[in-house]
Amino acid sequence: MTSAFVTFQKLFNAQLSDSSALGPQLDALTEQSNQVNAAGIEVKPQLLALLMINALSKSYQTIAGTILTTQTDVTLLTAALIKPKIVEEEQRRVANCTQIAHILKAPLLDKKCEKCGHKNHTTEQHWDTKLANSGSSSGNGNNT
Where do Basic and acidic residues bias regions lie (predicted)? Predict the structure, then answer.
């Protein structure tokens, strides 16, 4: 009975970590729930789902609130229903971080423009302002 109570305490005091994947952590909570149920202490599916939501870190409180407000009937709340939503949110965050990191790592052009000597554009990308302005202001026909 003491091992069942220890597992029961782990389940009720669980805190999920942002530093590792949430899917396996949620699976571990499900396994702990199964162990507690096997020991004769009933953990209903709704309670397990609420424990999973409660175990989320503060950075996931938005998705927790979304799940709770969109699921108006608590009797239908299950781990199988909320786990995909939590994992999807985690994947979205990872994808966003990857995109931001890719943008921040984009190298600037190191080549110099041969016309003006400035970096971050090539000679082909150079726009000669004198040439563009001279076509409309001077009537001598000389555009260089």
Answer: 120-129
